[in-house]
Task: structure prediction
Amino acid sequence: MFYGLLKIQRFFESLYQALISLVRVFFRFRFRSDLNKINASGKELVILANGPSLRSDLDNHPGFFLDKQLMCVNQFVLSTDYERLKPQFYILLDIGFFIENTIPRVAEVREQVKQALIRKTTWPMTFCCPAEGRNSFFHRDLAASGIPVKFVFFNRTVVDGYRPVRHWLYRRQMGMPPPQNVLIGALMAGLAFGFSRIIILGADHSWHQGLEIGTDGKLVSAEHHFYDKQPWKVAVQHPETLQRATIHDYFFNLYRTFRSYQLIQEFAGSRGVRIINASSITFIDAFERKNLADYPWDQR
Result:
């Protein structure tokens, strides 16, 4: 009896979330998506997240990255690997890259990323940005620089709830699962482009291991990317309110992040797309796991 009632409750909750998603889509309909204008030129996409484990993958398996369709994220351009690998796709998700009033450290990184892109990018590349970034100063500065980049904009409206409604909206790029992390946007872009297999590397998602509460009571996180020589500590703030985050805020956002991966896996499965997490270190359990050393897996 209890489980039957719980099932009914969850069904109505999913309907409610679907209704809220439709309302969001209605009010944000102006945020058009260009993702359907890109057609995959191959079957396989490799997404390079910036977790520390990517360093060993790049160093130990250099042959794997030859002739691959690569998508990099966030500050990848600041690494020496950017010019060596020449990724075909680049994606940003954080609105802080496109608005004036943001966290000071985000504003600093934004300028570093912009200048590095202008200085280093000499090959054709598709640059994916949230629709809110269209005609932002970041977009205008890159477009005016003359680098060979084609911009496409995607709709990051949160879509959740009843699966048929959710998938219908996803297929039309009217939204995505809660976009807590740039990898969520990268996966949805890869699905929209039409790749039949998406491989993830560098998705450690081990941030919780570096959390601490300082003597001032503020939450501090140890940031560590594959291009960093060592971790560095930073106070955790809300990107929009700029207020300090609490520990329950932080873990709630982690919950939303990992749940979004489950929603993406369901959607990918409905489209016959394999998402393979080949990160040597990872806390993501939503996707199929493989060892990069065993590639190509279909021949084993």
Summary: Residues 2-299 form one domain. The chain has a mean pLDDT of 89. Helices lie at 2-27, 54-60, 81-85, 104-120, 137-145, 163-171, 182-193, 247-270. The chain has eight helices and eleven strands.
